[in-house]
Each structure stands twice: as C-alpha cells, then as structure tokens.
Amino acid sequence: MTGFDGAELKLLTDLIEERFGLTFQGIRLEILESKLRPRLRELHLAGVRDYYQYLRFHPDRDSELARLPAMVTNNETYFFRETHQFDLLLHHVIPERRGALRGRPLRILSAGCSSGEEPYSLSIALHNAGLALAGITWEIDACDLNHERIARAQAALYPESSLRACDADARRRYFVQEPDGFRLRDKYRQGVRCFQANLVSPNGSVGWSVYDAILCRNLLIYVSEEAFGSLIALFARSLLPQGYLFLGHSESLLDRKTAFAPTMMGGAVVYRKLAAA
What we know:
The protein is of the alpha/beta class. The protein is built from ten helices and ten strands.
C-alpha cells in the first residue's frame, strides 16, 4: 500500500471532523496516513473506504470510534512544561479572587490534558506556593478526548520521558519510583479529577462546575474553524464572570469576535471573559 485515494481520505477526515472537531492538513494528514496503515492491516481492511464503512456500519464501530482519537491526536507533553502561565495564576488571578476563595475552592479546568502532566504540575505549583497554609483549597478538572491517555492520568504512573524537566530533587519530592515508571505522590493527586470528554459534542458542557480559569494550550491548532468557535463559546459558558482563558503560544483570539477580551498579565496575553457575556 503506497498511498491513499484523496476522495476516500476526505470521507474519513470529514467523519473525524464531524465527531471530534479535528482537522488534517499538511504534516498532520501525513501522520494520519502513517497511523492508518497498521490499523487497516490489523482489521484486514483493503483501504480507507473500507475503514470508513467500518466506522459507520460495523457492529464494533463504537469501540473503534473510541479508539480513533488515540490514533489521530498528538500527545506530546511532560511535567512542568511552559509553567509561566502557572505563575500568572499564582501571582495575578488568585490574589484578585482571594476574597471569594475564603468561602469556596479555586476551580480550574485543564482542557486537552492528555495524560495529566499539566494538571498535576499545576497541583504541585499550588502546593509549593503554600496556598493550603493560607486556607485556600482548589479543584482541578482535567479532560481529554483520548480515553487511553485519561487512563494513564488516572493511574498517575509515568515513563521517564514525562519527567524530562525534573531534576533529581523534583523526582524524589513528587514521585515514587516503581518497576514500571514513576508514580505521582498521592498528595499531588488530591483535588484533581481526570475524565474523558469530547468537547465538541452537541451537549455543550464540561466538568462539574464553572471555573475561575481554563487552560487550553496547544489544542485549538488541531481543530476546524467550526470547532474552534464551538470550543471558545463552551469555555465562555464554563467560566465565572471575568474568568480567565489561557491559550498556547501559537493560539490567539485577537482577530476574532468572542466573549473574551485580551488582557496583558505579567508580560503575556491572556483572555478575560467580558462582564456582559
């Protein structure tokens, strides 16, 4: 098998976009093709059209659709990646809400959390900032489309590659080494809920509450224009008044009409929910 028919690939990618909001162009389409080949062999299917028919009509289509996100998403992540935004939460967002946080937890959503390195890194940062000693508690919800990655997040057992930014002291403080990897200590798992979710589903809700801040970093670059608008609207509905949305460095709302206003914070651009939204 040396190549796929363009029309057949479009059938498949349109289905993926409809279900999950993911779009494929350039190198991402090539990655999809490379992952399709072994899967077609495993299912004894002759080509992409057969796989499309499988996803539409086969009795096992639901389980295959559940497996599909693991094939088509990029799960590159590790502990303490791009922690500057954690500093913004600690030094700007939390102080301005300190009064409200005397009577309720700080609530944060990590959207597109992969295997949990981001929300657990944030939990560690909150502990290290001494918030618990100041009487501030927190709840971190973390969701991802890929159920296999969520299973790893719930187990909190990681390969050494996930700890590439951790020095020896950090490894000792935050993890317990086991035969199969590094287990995050229970202290840093408390208050973090990891769950599978398709954020572009028609239901239009996520998590169990409204949030002070949402982190959605390096997810929007993979979605279609329609899914982009749907996700931003969902985040607006899921945030408290004047809550904050943190995006990745290559993602922006500056040229879009949304329920958010760009705000300079600690030398970086973040997005604040408009009071009227």
